[in-house]
Amino acid sequence: MMEEIASNLEVIRGRIRAACLRAARDPSSVELVAVSKTFPFQSIRDALEAAQLIFGESRLQEAEGKIGTLPAQLQWHFIGRVQRNKLRKILPLFQMIHAIDSLKLAVYANDLAKEIGLYPKVFLQVNQAGEASKGGFSETDLESTLEEILGLSHLEVVGLMTIPPACKKPAEAGKWFRALREFRDTLEEKFSVKLPCLSMGMSDDFETAIEEGATHVRVGSAIFGKRSARVEGELG
Ligand SMILES: *Cc1c(COP(=O)(O)O)cnc(C)c1O
Predict the structure, then answer these.
(1) How far from 167 is each of 170, 174, 176, 235, CA to CA, in Å?
(2) Cβ of residue 219 lying under 6 Å from some atom of ligand 1
(3) What is the pLDDT of residues 180-227, one digit of tens each?
(4) Distance 217 CA to ligand 1 centre (A)
(5) What is the pTM (predicted TM-score) of this model?
(6) How remote is the CA of residue 189 from the centroid of ligand 1, in Å?
(7) What is the torsion angle, in degrees rounded to the nearest 10, for the CA atoms of residue 103, residue 211, residue 183 and residue 132?
(8) Ligand 1 pocket, 75 CB below 6 A?
(9) Which ligand 1 atom sits closest to the C-alpha of 98?
């Protein structure tokens, strides 16, 4: 099991380097977020043993147990849908929050961060295809609220995140990833702001995402193995 996770990580790192090479990008410009949701502590220890330090979780309760028990050198990213009533606990535990999906949530996160004395790094999630099953801003909503979000003194908005519609072939996800990058470029220009990070790409399509500019790829099953179908259905 341990050897398997270590060798999976080696393979993924190699594929990340190769994708960076194809895109003429510096491999250090891509963070691998190992998505450990639903996987046991031992899997995370095995990945740590193989020098993986950044982990992604999507449920607070599960993550709290892991974060409290595993070595403090690990970094945790909250990649799941953020429930308002969990945010007070989420903020101090996670280095980055990938899925701020509304103005209301951003304002609330800022209020809490101010109260606790934190400056959380957050991504704004874009719901590119307007899927009812997924959270996120429509492009129009984000354009009309970004000014206000950028004015929130205690949030560090690092960039955009997407979970594109399921595609039959990984290459088909490329058009969504490209669209997110181009939208980011448009926002940077329009609001004179830097949004350097793009959280996009999962086990099936992280190479395509990197070729389109991903800075954070969220890879779970390709490292840790298959999750159960029930859990899979809750994605996003
Ligand atoms: C579960 C999850 C992932 C990882 O998915 P894999 O297909 O296992 O790589 C990435 N992003 C989000 C938001 C997730 O919920």
Answers:
(1) 7, 10, 10, 15
(2) yes
(3) 999 999 999 999 999 999 999 999 999 999 999 999 999 999 999 998
(4) 9
(5) 0.96
(6) 30
(7) -50
(8) no
(9) 13
The whole-number average pLDDT for the span 50-58 is: 98
| Cα 201 to ligand 1 centre (Å) | 9
The rounded distance, in Å, linking the Cα atoms of 72 and 182 is: 37
Q: What is the pLDDT of the chain when averaged over all its residues?
A: 95
Is-contact 208 174, C-beta < 8 A? yes
CA of 35 to the centre of ligand 1 (A): 6
* CB of 170 closer than 6 angstroms to any ligand 1 atom: no
Nearest CA to 160 among 131, 190, 132, 136? Answer: 136
Strand 121-125 relative to strand 96-100: parallel, antiparallel, unpaired? parallel
Furthest-apart CA atoms within the chain: distance in Å? 49
